[in-house]
């Protein structure tokens, strides 16, 4: 974002509803599906979209610290009020999101593209523990082999598999072999 010019900053602020200091100043330009503003710039002859709240922070407070993110203290992703923006770690930002109730975690059957049910997952684990091969389980449920693998590794459907004694591992063999 070092490529931003004074003209870029002036154009940026024309796209922000600047109001009272304590209110959110929302970006009037393009918002992505999560509601974050995206500001179009050009650098080295190429078009680039940058996060509006990062432009706002940088224009008032100066360069961003490498490795840090800009947190919305107001929890409004379209807000560009520098008083509502603060540098922080990714972990702090995620904690803020969950504390404010903005985290979306569609587990299991509530996931948009879920094919399996909680009962299916329990049966998959039971079948595997009884010696049924993974390929047979894949054919029975009509899902990709990686779906079954992730269930048996404990990386998917953890809310079902962990109570069944499946502990996720980063590497190695399946933790469920009897």
Mean pLDDT: 87
Rg over CA atoms, rounded to whole Å, is 23 Å
| Apparent shape | elongated
Largest beta-sheet details: 3 strands, antiparallel
Question: What's the helix and strand layout?
Answer:
Elements: H1 6-14, E1 30-31, E2 37-43, E3 46-51, H2 52-61, E4 69-72, E5 85-88, H3 90-99, H4 118-129, H5 134-141, H6 145-153, H7 158-161
Antiparallel strand pairs: 1-2, 2-3, 4-5
Q: Could you please describe the fold and organization of this structure?
A:
With 178 residues, this protein is of the alpha+beta class. Helix content is 35%, strand content 13%. It is built from seven helices and five strands. It has helices spanning 6-14, 52-61, 90-99, 118-129, 134-141, 145-153, 158-161, and strands spanning 30-31, 37-43, 46-51, 69-72, 85-88. Strands 1-2-3 form a three-stranded antiparallel β-sheet. The longest helix has 12 residues, at 118-129. The protein is elongated, with a radius of gyration of 23 Å. The N and C termini lie far apart (54 Å).
What are the main properties of this structure?
13% strand, 178 residues, 3-stranded antiparallel sheet, elongated, 35% helix, 7 helices
TL;DR of this structure?
With 178 residues, the chain is α+β, with helices and mostly antiparallel strands.
